[in-house]
């Protein structure tokens, strides 16, 4: 009865909610979300720097998340590279001095906080020609004004970045009197035009005063209350923002430190000065504001403008636009013809007469329709990860964010199960199931940022290895059993593996090696094909007739193993091979092929490893290939030894397994963000709802791309050899043109 109820319920759900209706719903959701974000950008502005300087929240205890964008954590080398030949000046009181020290420690972590605190403090890094000064001016008065005035008159001494702020000393010295506030307003009014003049050629930031923790303040600071600080901040914002007429002030308000202080001031030692972790966050925000537009880090989307379209991207946009227009014209003509041939009613009998028989869909219509859909999907990809329309956030790992979704999908996978069509080991349903649950775990691993947790990282390496094992096993089994080494089979596989990635390389302006998994499975497919196709071609039918052929196959595989070991331990030879043009255009990343060598060497066997056998990633990655196939073979045995286990499979996991490659690739840009470094935010302020909606759209897109790829593969890769050779010539010409355009782009960039 339970099984009957389950089947009836599933049919009822499928009747009202199919994959097609889900995709329509996803399309409507994308249009609505795009319209909402576009309206929000127009209303609130499109400057992510303002969000970085004014808003955000803590993820956990110490990770700061700006509103709508991602913040990069700058390393020493990056900071020096950005600030080479630059002069930065911090001017203000002890709180500004704290910010100065934290900023300098990004450049030089060994810089010590010592010396007289109430005097100027210089810092210079001669290797990078970076100069950072702190100027002690604890009050907004004539002394501060004179210092700023000198900069306006001397273009040589003028800093590139000026960070200023003061108020607590005025409150303290004058015992929080109203006269002191009035004087503060007058003084800041007098320096506002000078700051505005500097801001035309330099970056000028006015740091608003952070709140205090009044319970910890000493007796001589009790007059510094949060009420007084708010009054001084309001005065500074009002005067500096109104210092220019009919235009927006160029002096930027650094108000985000207030939000940081509200969460961390309780950890202060004296109630006035922020704990070190908080000022480090403020210093890193300053570094992001200035350096992101210079270095353009992938995971630092704040303050970065939309990247300009390349020539290849423009040509791709023209192509997809032409396909959309062509399909619309084709559709209109076809619809008008259908209306003319619409069944008419016989006046005598009252019955309809059919004038024509439905004609089959032509290859041209399928081609135009597929590219039309693909063009719209690529527009969504571009909007998500290049156009800065949707928001992005940094990842933040917690054990619950990884393990709770794992438990949830495990329950769903066990609940949805069906009988297999066959019970042999590693049958099709079982391998789809295996790919499906592995892909879902990998997706959760990526979005939760679980790579920071070593045991999880190592188990995911096992899953990647297992996926490669399945790919190699599937291709080997096909060639071994079928003996089909024809060019049509090879082209079909290569097309299905690489079509989406090639399109993304063009549309998203990314190198082929960026989507590292596809090069891996492509190269290993070709290795298996070449090994088995070379003379003598040994297949199952031939080997069953003579045991000698089994020995020949083992000999082939032995030579292959030696070749793999040679390349794995000869980095120089490996890099020389793959640095040759045009291979270098496919396998280079950031100007070299090291990343490709690392990925290939890490996943050169089908293997796994016990996660607790090493203590750090470097050691794990070194041991990982050496400890071979134990876990994978163990899983295969456990999954197949019981007869019942071979006769059932999880239809839930198998459904995802059929689109696992598309899921793996699409996550880069429409589920994650900033090329997998962050998370796409479609619905801000509600992380759970955002994950649900973005995942729903992401899965629908991946499924549609899988169908588009299958449809195009049937048209572009025909079975007729003469037609196939012509298509291959056209594809070769296309890639030659792409290489030429890529070379032209590279020269223009340099």
TrEMBL record:
Entry keyword annotation includes Membrane: yes
Catalytic activity: a ganglioside GD3 (d18:1(4E)) + acetyl-CoA = a ganglioside Ac-O-7-GD3(d18:1(4E)) + CoA; CMP-N-acetyl-beta-neuraminate + acetyl-CoA = CMP-N-acetyl-7-O-acetyl-beta-neuraminate + CoA; CMP-N-acetyl-beta-neuraminate + acetyl-CoA = CMP-N-acetyl-9-O-acetyl-beta-neuraminate + CoA
Membrane topology, from the record: Multi-pass membrane protein
TM stretches of this protein: 311-333, 396-416, 436-457, 487-507, 514-536, 548-569, 652-673, 679-703, 724-744
Gene Ontology molecular-function annotations: N-acetylneuraminate 9-O-acetyltransferase activity
Record flagged with keyword Transmembrane: yes
Domain Cas1p 10 TM acyl transferase, chain residue ranges per copy: 296-606
Domain NXPE C-terminal stretches: 64-135
InterPro entries: Cas1_AcylTrans_dom (IPR012419), Cyclin-like_sf (IPR036915), NXPE4_C (IPR057106)
Family: Belongs to the PC-esterase family. CASD1 subfamily.
Protein name according to UniProt: N-acetylneuraminate (7)9-O-acetyltransferase
Source species: Macaca fascicularis (Crab-eating macaque)
Gene name of the encoded protein: CASD1
């Amino acid at each position: 009865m339970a099984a009957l109820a389950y089947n009836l319920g599933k049919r009822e759900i499928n009747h009202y909610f199919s994959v097609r209706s889900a995709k329509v719903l996803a399309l409507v959701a994308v249009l609505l979300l795009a319209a909402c974000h576009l309206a929000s950008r127009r209303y609130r502005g499109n400057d992510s720097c303002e969000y970085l300087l004014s808003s955000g929240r803590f993820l956990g205890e110490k990770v700061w998340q700006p509103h709508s964008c991602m913040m990069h954590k700058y390393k020493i080398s990056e900071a020096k590279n950005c600030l080479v030949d630059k002069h930065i000046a911090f001017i203000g009181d002890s709180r500004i001095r704290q910010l100065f020290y934290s900023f300098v420690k990004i450049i030089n972590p060994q810089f010590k906080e010592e010396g007289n605190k109430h005097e100027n403090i210089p810092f210079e890094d001669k290797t990078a020609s970076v100069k950072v000064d702190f100027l002690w001016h604890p009050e907004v008065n004539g002394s501060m004004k004179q210092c700023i005035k000198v900069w306006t008159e001397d273009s040589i001494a003028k800093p590139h970045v000026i960070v200023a702020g003061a108020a607590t000393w005025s409150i303290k010295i004058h015992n929080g009197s109203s006269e002191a506030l009035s004087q503060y307003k007058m003084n800041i009014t007098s320096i506002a035009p000078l700051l505005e003049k500097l801001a035309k050629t330099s970056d000028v930031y006015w740091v608003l005063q952070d709140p205090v923790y009044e319970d910890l303040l000493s007796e001589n600071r009790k007059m510094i209350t949060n009420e007084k600080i708010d009054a001084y901040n309001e005065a500074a914002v009002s005067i500096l923002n109104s210092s220019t007429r009919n235009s927006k002030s160029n002096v930027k308000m650094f108000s985000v430190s207030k939000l940081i202080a509200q969460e961390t001031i309780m950890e202060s030692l004296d109630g006035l000065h922020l704990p070190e972790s908080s000022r480090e966050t403020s210093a890193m925000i300053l570094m992001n504001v200035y350096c992101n537009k210079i270095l353009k880090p992938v995971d630092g989307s704040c303050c970065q403008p939309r990247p300009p379209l390349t020539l290849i991207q423009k040509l791709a946009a023209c192509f997809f636009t032409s396909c959309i227009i062509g399909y619309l014209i084709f559709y209109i003509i076809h619809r008008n013809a259908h209306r003319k041939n619409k069944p008419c009613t016989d006046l005598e009998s009252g019955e309809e007469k059919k004038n024509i028989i439905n004609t089959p869909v032509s290859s041209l219509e399928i081609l135009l329709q597929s590219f039309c859909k693909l063009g719209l999907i690529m527009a969504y990809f571009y909007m998500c990860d290049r156009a800065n329309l949707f928001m992005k956030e940094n990842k933040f790992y917690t054990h619950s964010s990884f393990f709770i979704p794992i438990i949830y999908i495990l329950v769903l996978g066990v609940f949805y199960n069906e009988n297999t069509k066959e019970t042999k080991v590693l049958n099709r349903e079982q391998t789809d199931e295996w790919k499906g649950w592995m892909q879902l775990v990998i997706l959760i691993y990526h979005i939760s940022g679980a790579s920071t947790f070593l045991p999880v990282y190592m188990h995911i390496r096992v899953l990647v290895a297992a996926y490669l094992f399945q790919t190699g096993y599937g291709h080997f089994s096909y060639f071994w059993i079928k003996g089909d080494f024809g060019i049509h089979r090879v082209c079909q596989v290569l097309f299905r593996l690489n079509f989406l990635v090639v399109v993304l390389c063009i549309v998203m302006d990314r190198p082929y090696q960026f989507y590292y998994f596809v090069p891996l499975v492509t190269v290993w497919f070709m290795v298996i094909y070449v090994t088995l196709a070379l003379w003598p071609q040994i297949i199952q039918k031939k080997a069953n007739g003579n045991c000698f052929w089994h020995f020949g196959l083992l000999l082939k595989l032995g030579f292959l193993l030696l070749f793999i070991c040679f390349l794995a331990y000869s980095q120089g030879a490996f890099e020389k091979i793959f640095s040759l043009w045009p291979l270098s255009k496919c396998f280079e990343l950031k100007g070299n092929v090291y990343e490709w060598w690392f990925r290939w060497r890490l996943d050169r066997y089908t293997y796994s490893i016990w996660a607790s056998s090493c203590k750090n990633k470097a050691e794990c990655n070194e041991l990982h290939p050496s400890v071979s196939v134990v876990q994978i073979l163990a899983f295969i045995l456990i999954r197949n030894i019981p007869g019942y286990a071979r006769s059932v499979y999880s239809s839930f996991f198998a459904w995802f397994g059929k689109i696992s490659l598309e899921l793996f690739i699409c996550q880069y840009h429409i589920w994650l963000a900033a090329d997998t470094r962050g998370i796409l935010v479609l619905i801000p302020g509600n992380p759970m709802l955002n994950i649900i909606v973005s995942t729903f759209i992401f899965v629908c897109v991946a499924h549609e791309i899988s169908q588009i790829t299958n449809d195009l593969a049937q048209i572009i890769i025909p079975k007729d050899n003469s037609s196939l050779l012509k298509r291959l010539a056209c594809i070769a010409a296309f890639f030659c043109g792409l290489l030429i355009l890529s070379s032209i782009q590279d020269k223009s960039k340099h």
